[in-house]
Amino acid sequence: GDSVTQMEGPVTLSEEACLTINCTYTATGYPSLFWYVQYPGEGLQLLLKATKADDKGSNKGFEATYRKETTSFHLEKGSVQVSDSAVYFCALTDTNNAGNMLTFGGGTRLMVKP
Amino acid sequence: NAGVTQTPKFRVLKTGQSMTLLCAQDMNHEYMYWYRQDPGMGLRLIHYSVGEGTTAKGEVPDGYNVSRLKKQNFLLGLESAAPSQTSVYFCASNNRGPTNQPQHFGDGTRLSIL
Description:
The structure holds two protein chains of two kinds. Chain A is mainly β. Chain A has no helices and twelve strands. In chain A, the strands form three sheets. In chain A, strands 2, 5, 6, 10, 11 and 12 form a six-stranded mixed beta sheet that branches. In chain A, strands 3-9-8-7 form a four-stranded antiparallel beta sheet, with no helix packed on it. Chain A has a two-stranded antiparallel ribbon with strand order 1-4. Chain A starts with a strand and ends with a strand. Chain B is mainly β. Chain B is globular and about 40 Å long.
């Protein structure tokens, strides 16, 4: 079956530091890849997505590139802010999935200190 | 601009009690989902629905039942609550179509079973 593995947290950074959160996946079909963000007390929001190999998703200064050869979709940001403190989830949906169901990684908590 | 609305937001139950969580979406989405979120495990799919009157099991369906009598509503029931069902529950919805469409999430229901 499909699976998503992401680095465990928490990740603690100082403001303006560079961020990388690793995500790798296994899939039986041709997956679409997503990063979702969860701010404290809220539901998940889509951060960015990529639908085919070599696509780069970007939003709010975050970006991730769909790497089929390494089955990875690492999240990066060049300069984090305190407001980026949240839990980040990597997820996929697969083409052999009739209900467009998401498979999630375990989540990575990011804490940014001023 | 409601999107996906979950009620209640918080609930405390005693072991053996029953309750129903309500999810309502106003985006005319065909697909709806119930997830549970537990520390370090990401989100796991409980049940889902691909249309009015249809439901299907997800990864962790035991102890839960669901109904989709109206397209906009998806109910999650606990017939006899157990402490292992203490979790945060999220509802989501999505359009029928390509797998690259993101799911839209509610803000969650925090449920504690004593």
